[in-house]
Amino acid sequence: MSRLRRLALLPALCVLALPVLVLLARALPVRAADLPEAPARNTVTMLDLGAKSCIPCKMMIPVLSALEKDYVGRAAILFIDVWENPEQGKKYGLRAIPTQIFYDRQGKETFRHEGFMDQQAIAAVLDKLLAQ
């Protein structure tokens, strides 16, 4: 095949390769540097471990957003997607998602909940930890 003919095929190969590149980009894990530090240092922390695609996890999104606003400067509200970062599920010993893990200021795990947890229940745990 002549060099000119090979160059003419290049755009078609790029079009064919694009979906593969998109799939590879989605499959690449988030680098450890991009994950939040959990528990946060010297701060009461609530870590939500879930996935952006699971239904109960999606229900947690507005709860977490509201808690981030309510507890700004007082507690760290963190989220890790364990479908994108499966090693994190093993690290935290997950059995189900979503799972919320609460830490005191010293970084000690004080409470763990599996499944959807409403804003009032989370706030009660955070307020108890903040009062200590």
Structural write-up:
- The protein has two domains: 3-30, no CATH class; 33-131, Glutaredoxin.
- The chain is globular, with a radius of gyration of 21 Å.
- A four-stranded mixed sheet has the order 2-1-3-4.
- The protein is of the alpha+beta class.
- The chain has helices spanning 3-27, 55-70, 86-91, 119-131, and strands at residues 44-50, 75-81, 99-103, 109-114.
- It contains four helices and four strands, in the order αβαβαββα.
Based on the model shown, name its key terms:
alpha+beta, Glutaredoxin, four-stranded mixed β-sheet, 4 strands, globular, Thioredoxin, Thioredoxin_domain, protein-disulfide reductase activity, Thioredoxin-like_sf
How are the SSEs placed, and which strands pair?
Layout: H1 3-27, E1 44-50, H2 55-70, E2 75-81, H3 86-91, E3 99-103, E4 109-114, H4 119-131
Parallel strand pairs: 1-2
Antiparallel strand pairs: 1-3, 3-4
Organism: Fundidesulfovibrio magnetotacticus
Domain Thioredoxin: 4-131
GO biological process, one term: cell redox homeostasis
